[in-house]
Design brief:
By secondary structure, this protein is α/β, with parallel strands linked by helices. The chain has two domains: 194 residues, FAD/NAD(P)-binding domain; 106 residues, FAD/NAD(P)-binding domain (3-Layer(bba) Sandwich), CATH 3.50.50.60. The protein is 24% helix and 25% strand. The chain has seven helices and 17 strands. Strands 1, 2, 3, 4, 5, 6 and 17 form a seven-stranded mixed beta sheet that branches. A five-stranded parallel beta sheet has the order 8-15-9-10-11. It has a three-stranded antiparallel beta sheet with strand order 12-13-14, with no helix packed on it. It is elongated, with a radius of gyration of 22 Å. The two termini are 14 Å apart.
């Protein structure tokens, strides 16, 4: 590992015990890091693996759970050489592989960054860190519907993760909103648990893969409704009990009784903390080509948060390897 002991980090911790706890986790890495990786999804963990194997100190910062979106995916069936595996097991496998290389994963949310100098600074909810390079691997988050009642009932019947929350609504009537692969997969997953699933698609067709659509159509307890907009999510007391929908062709509102609404209408990046220094496109994705280099020297990007045409586990992990390789070249050039 390449450590620079002379560059001690000042940790603005809440108390001395917390500072000592961080030191006990990082050990000798309680100094200037070779690479700080923001995000512990497939891209971030792959980058950490490659950086560590190249002999550099790597620390991964994650605000939620390692594995990213795949951790809450019911099954992964399109990763080469792995015919079928649960998302949770897939995530655990990557995590264990990375940990064995000596990589540290800190469950801290990066709140702000300073990318102006040769030494990059990260401010988390627990402290401050410094690194020679940064890999942005923050992934994407579920897009919100924006209708009345969505915020009010979030976590009380409004969910963005069917595999996380579906079991709470066993033998209940639920709705899924969306027309892509995620919405189709969510509907299939919930059909095994819930009494009925109403899949609400805004357009006159779905965008998802044909085999998923055929599977949905084959289920007796899944009902497809096209050209449908959700106007309101409502309930009695603190939980969801109905939604109000509008058929765009008939322009008539209808009330449907459901116990939960699972929203799967797409994804969006969360790169606001980088916007002062890093160039983003109009949708907020980091502008970078296949080299994964950003417009700031020493700052790289990997995975779904980068502007790209295809967002899959395999492309995210490819980005992670490329970003780490370019980090290696960058660090070697600085020696």
């Amino acid at each position: 590992m390449n450590f620079i002991i002379s560059s001690i980090i000042f940790i603005k911790s809440k108390n001395l015990i917390l500072a000592l706890k961080i030191y006990s986790i990082l050990g000798d890495e309680f100094c200037l890091l070779d690479v700080a990786i923001i995000g512990a999804g497939p891209a971030g963990l792959t980058a950490a693996l490659y950086a560590a194997r190249a002999g550099f100190s790597a620390v991964v910062f994650e605000r939620n759970i390692y594995g990213g979106q795949v951790a809450s995916t019911n099954e992964v069936e399109n990763y080469p050489a792995v015919e079928r595996i649960s998302g949770a097991e897939f995530s655990m496998n990557i995590y264990n592989q990375v940990i064995k290389q000596g990589v540290k994963i800190l469950l801290e949310e990066v709140k702000d960054v300073d990318l102006s100098g040769n030494v990059k600074k990260l401010i988390t909810d627990l402290g401050e860190y410094e690194a020679k390079t940064i890999i942005i691997a923050t992934g994407v988050k579920r897009r919100k519907l924006g209708c009345k009642g969505e915020e009010k009932f979030s976590g009380r019947g409004v969910s963005y993760c069917a595999t996380c929350d579906g079991a709470f609504f066993k033998d209940k009537d639920v709705a899924v909103v969306g027309g892509g692969n995620t919405a189709l997969e969510d509907a299939l997953f919930l059909a095994n648990i819930c009494k009925s699933v109403t899949l609400l698609v805004r357009k006159d067709r779905v965008r998802g893969e044909k085999f998923l659509l055929e599977s949905v159509k084959s289920r007796n307890n899944i009902k497809l409704r096209y050209n449908t907009i959700v106007n309101e999510i409502g309930g009695v007391g603190e939980t969801v009990s109905f939604i109000k929908i509008v058929d765009k062709n008939l322009e008539k509102e209808k009330k449907i009784e459901v116990s939960a609404v699972f929203i799967a209408i797409g994804l969006e990046p969360d790169n606001s903390i980088f916007s002062d220094a890093i160039k983003l496109d109009d949708s907020g994705y980091v502008l970078a080509d296949e080299s994964c280099k950003t417009n700031v020297a020493g700052v790289f990007v990997a995975g779904d948060t980068r502007q790209k045409n295809l967002r899959q586990i395999v492309t995210a992990m490819s980005d992670g390897a490329i970003a780490a390789n370019n980090v290696t070249q960058y660090l070697n050039s600085q020696m």
